[in-house]
Amino acid sequence: MTTFHIITVLPELFEPYLGESILGRAIKSKLVRVKIYDLRSFTRDKHRKVDDKPYGGGPGMIISVEPLVQTLRKILKGKSKNKIKIVITAPAGRQFSNKTAQSLASRYKDIVIIAGRYEGLDERIIKILKSKNGFGAGVEEVSVGPYVLTGGELPALVIIDAVARHIDGVLGKAESLEEKRLGVGVPVYTRPENFKFLGRDYKVPSVLLSGNHRRIEIWRRENRKTG
Ligand code: SAM
């Protein structure tokens, strides 16, 4: 079983998405586990404050290093470090891809995802994680795309979703084989055969109705959309 550990200041955002559909089923059948850590529970501050003003001035607040260290301590305690990957969500991180998702799924049992907020994390958490006397687990800053979001919760869900699809048993056998065989971006159609809209006919390509599997496969390969 692969366990995702999410560190966040907005824990309630995750459940609705994770409870549904393919991910919901994967969690129920114990192929995947998701543990959410509310950063506010790891602060010594009596007001559960997790952020503070930036040194050097500037707008926005920064997530403090102390509660992050305490949360990571709790997560990593007693775990074999070479099976753990720590992913820090960051707009300037390495571009997340299907290849990264596949490699995370096959190499790690525990994937820790830090969802930032505000103006990001105190840089020292990255220094600590990358240093020899840090936590000993691999760490990487990862971006889910060339844009800036208000927080790392959506990126964390994107990463969980994309990684989970590569875990054995999460997708139906047929679905995952079909995607491996043909790749992504194959145009798909369902009933009706002809959809009339504003006086025009939108027909399903006739080859898909032909029953000729060889021709269908060739058509699918030839019509695959590539980014
Ligand atoms: N100025 C900050 C910076 O350059 O990192 C922007 C921080 S952003 C408003 C707040 C948080 O959202 C980040 O710490 C990160 O966790 C998350 N985030 C925003 N865009 C992201 C992206 N494209 N990929 C991954 N995480 C992102």
What report would you give on this structure?
With 227 residues, the chain is an alpha/beta fold. It has two domains: 2-175, SPOUT methyltransferase, trefoil knot domain (Alpha/beta knot), CATH 3.40.1280.10; 182-222, no CATH class. It contains eight helices and nine strands. The protein has helices spanning 15-18, 21-28, 65-76, 98-107, 124-130, 153-164, 173-182, 213-222; strands spanning 2-8, 32-38, 51-52, 62-63, 84-95, 110-114, 138-143, 194-197, 200-203. Strands 2-1-6-5-7 form a five-stranded parallel beta sheet, with helices on both faces. Strands 3-4 form a two-stranded antiparallel ribbon. A two-stranded antiparallel ribbon has the order 8-9. Helix 4 crosses helix 6. The longest helix has 12 residues, at 65-76. Bound molecules: S-adenosylmethionine.
Q: What would the keywords be for this entry?
A:
single chain; binds S-adenosylmethionine; five-stranded parallel sheet; Alpha/beta knot; two-stranded antiparallel sheet; 227 residues; 9 strands; 8 helices
Write the layout of secondary structure elements.
Elements: E1 2-8, H1 15-18, H2 21-28, E2 32-38, E3 51-52, E4 62-63, H3 65-76, E5 84-95, H4 98-107, E6 110-114, H5 124-130, E7 138-143, H6 153-164, H7 173-182, E8 194-197, E9 200-203, H8 213-222
Parallel strand pairs: 1-2, 1-6, 5-6, 5-7
Antiparallel strand pairs: 3-4, 8-9
Bound molecules: S-adenosylmethionine.
